[in-house]
Amino acid sequence: MPQIEKSPPRTSHHTESPPGPRTPSGPGPRTKKAGRTALRGDLSASVVVFLLAVPLSLGIALATGAPLQAGLVAAVVGGIVAGLLGGAPLQVTGAATGLLVVTADLVQRYGWRATCAITVLAGLAQIVLGAVRVARATLAVSPAIVHGMLAGIGATIALGQLHVVLGGSPDSSALDNAAALPGQLAHPHLAALLIGTVTVAVLIGWGRLPGRAGRWARVLPAPLAAVLAATAVSAGTAVARVELPSWRLPEPPALPDVSLPALAAAVLTVTLVASMESLLSAVAVDRLAAERPGAPTGRARLNRELAAQGVANAVSGLLGGLPVSGGAMRGSANVRAGAATRRATVLHGVWVLLTAGLLAAVLELIPLAALAALVMVVGVRMVSFAHIRHVQRHREFPVYAATLGGVVLFGVLQGVLTGIAVALFLALRRLTHTRITVTEEADGHRVRVSGQLTFLAVPRLTRALGQVPAHTDVVVELCGSFMDHAAYEALQSWSTAHRAHGGWVNLGGRPGRPIAEPAKAHSCRPWTPWRNHHCTRPAPDPAVATESSGSQLLGGVSAFQRHTAPLVREELARLAREGQRPSQLFLTCADSRLVTSMITSSGPGDLFTVRNVGNLMPPPGSDASCDSVGAAIEYAVEVLRVGSITVCGHSGCGAMGALLGAAAPEDAEPTPLSRWLRHGRPSLARMQRIGRLGRGEVSLSGRPVDDDQERLALVNVMQQLDHLRAHPCVARRVAEGALTLHGMYFHVGEAQAYVLDEATGRFCAVRGEPAPVTV
């Protein structure tokens, strides 16, 4: 009865949350309760981010060679100023990890006051960029360049801070640090090495503690736990520790005594890196928040966020702080800790300010080796193997490698320019590189053109077409996405001449972009109804009175082999080599009208789909005859390591209608269908219990529930999610934070998807907006 598919989703759903109810005299009880819940979430999240920001800010300041209090100033300004003015309310701004290498170079070259001046100028440049609304254009930079830049910065950070962990001091460049590393390893400072080892061990193992200890450990951020452990280990040892001078008015920034081009290059580098890191982090945090049940529906306003980052940088530089940017690490911690509004970000800055003023003596107990180890681990994690696999899959690894190498060898700005140059070269090569092959087959010849067909490829095209004998059948496959006028004329001229000499030519390109398509070609979409679906049917045979559905199916398969298989063969060959790596599990009904790949905009390998009558998930302890679905769930969670599971019900579900129908006589022989549907009885009882006790009911945004059959389908989604959580493998991965569960309802007649907000029991309509982020 259950069916398993490997199909897919590639789009992220944006849900519509209805406003809370109001009475004429003011907010209703639900609104007040939601406000108190949001306040509690903001308070707890602000404490979590504060505990993360203090050691991280001190570590970044230490790694740059700036005064240690500069990191705390950056955290305070980033939290309060950017938090109040920013367009991404849940993003947390502070000392910029991505600017660590740049800032260290500026401090060494020009001194601290000049670095502050450059920070102010970069902030003013960000304000101008935000005012002229270029934030979206900044995100147009290739992800391979961005990830390569961050990886290069991370590698440089890790090499430099490793020297501090070993008891030495870093050199000015990554190459010098790498050359000096063998000598440093031969003569380490044992106390500093022990402190650094403890810090790294706690950072890596803190989130992996099992059982009750692990649950308590997740309350305390790993960086703070690591620094506390290292401070305890260092008690009584003679190691360098944090030194915070008494607070006083900062010295005003002073421009460096350099040429205008050198100053402009420094300001441009800080502006570019800080802006890109902030905007990418804002998008990532916004998407993370959108996945959380009950999350606010307001989305990031990127131009406002860019201008707010500029104001924060200008203020931070004037007050003697480090350059700031939004950070994905701090922002994701803020979201996961339950932040609901910008209060969490602002409060975290207030807590840092109070700590710097009242608990400076406590901060001075921290050993510098612990901060160096903390920043070293942050640098290592900036080199993401997931990003490497991603750019490799999209054939962008040369751009990634060139950017990474350029950052390590020459600097951040030079590395980014190197990556841009390589990306442009590859784009030009792909535009001009065309492969043309001619193969002889049993029924004729096949000419396959891979790549873009421009005037540069016309000589090779005509040469290849000249190899085709006259009076033969020829299929010309154009697998590129572009053909200019010269190539089109050459192809049409040859086709006309070949047909004039008695040959037959079929010219075909990508779906929707045919060159010259015969009238009998397959033009329907994959979801075209089979009723009157004539294009995949073979030519009628006069000897056969009726046409079977089997011949119709074979006609559709034949159309796939002819038109679609050449387009997907390369991607499927890659999946065959690498194996399946779906990111999501989709549990839905076997109803033929529910086309999972269509409603989730999915491609091969994206989605692991389990289908059965009624989208049911038998709870643990059911008889062995129901192990098929449980086995599929276990395989997806434990072996494929999917990150989310979605249970999707639909309108007009026959299983729900059967559950609502009259019960079978007691002496009736149970059938396989009736035995299977008993797993839906808890959903039926739940719906009846909700109505009888008056505890509210599930609802749809925008319209009332049609009838009991639709109401049961909605309740059934919630009940099957509960059954999922009862399975040990699912419960464990959810507790680890590695798996999320979602409910969905699809109304077939409306072609409308709804996503469940479990906090309210409301299914919210997914809106068909063109982009997940507004500017």
TrEMBL record:
Biased composition (Pro residues): 18-27
Its membrane topology: Multi-pass membrane protein
Cellular localization per UniProt: Membrane
Transmembrane segments: 43-63, 70-90, 110-132, 144-166, 186-207, 219-240, 260-285, 349-378, 399-428
UniProt keyword list: Membrane, Transmembrane, Transmembrane helix
InterPro entries: Carbonic_anhydrase, Carbonic_anhydrase_sf, SLC26A/SulP_dom, SLC26A/SulP_fam
Presence of keyword Membrane: yes
Domain SLC26A/SulP transporter: 39-397
Family the entry assigns: Belongs to the beta-class carbonic anhydrase family.
Role description: Catalyzes the reversible hydration of carbon dioxide to form bicarbonate.
Protein name from the UniProt record: SulP family inorganic anion transporter
Protein species of origin: Streptomyces caniferus
